[in-house]
C-alpha cells in the first residue's frame, strides 16, 4: 500500500469501528463469559443450547470477516491500475540475484 494524502472517508471509518466492535463482542459472547448465559441443559432442535450459541457467534464472526473483505479490504481502482513490481535492470548489473 502506498501512503496517500487522502483521509479515510467517514463511512469507512464508521464501518471499521462497527465491524471491530461486532467481532470483539462475538468473541466475548461466543467463547468468553457470554457462554455462561446459556450454560444449561436445554436443546434447540436436538442441538445442545451451548453448542448452538457458539455456532451462532461463529457465524457472526464469519459475517464480519466477509463484510470486511468485500467492503474494506478490496483493492482500490488505483492499486488495480498499477503495473506489477519488477526488479530493476540495475539489480542485475550489480550482480544482485534473488
TrEMBL record:
Superkingdom, taxonomy of origin: Bacteria
Keywords carried by this UniProt record: Membrane, Transmembrane, Transmembrane helix
Region described as Disordered: 77-98
Transmembrane segments: 21-38, 50-72
Protein name: DUF3311 domain-containing protein
Top-level taxonomy: Bacteria, Pseudomonadati, Planctomycetota, Planctomycetia, Pirellulales
Amino acid at each position: 500500500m502506498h501512503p496517500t494524502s487522502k483521509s479515510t472517508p467517514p463511512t469507512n471509518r464508521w464501518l471499521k469501528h462497527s465491524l471491530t466492535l461486532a467481532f470483539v463482542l462475538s468473541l466475548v459472547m461466543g467463547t468468553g463469559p457470554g457462554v455462561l448465559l446459556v450454560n444449561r441443559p436445554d436443546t434447540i432442535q436436538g442441538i445442545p443450547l451451548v453448542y448452538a450459541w457458539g455456532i451462532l457467534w461463529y457465524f457472526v464472526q464469519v459475517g464480519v470477516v466477509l463484510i470486511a473483505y468485500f467492503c474494506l479490504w478490496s483493492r482500490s481502482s488505483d492499486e488495480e491500475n498499477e503495473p506489477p513490481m519488477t526488479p530493476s535492470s540495475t539489480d542485475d548489473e550489480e550482480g544482485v540475484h534473488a
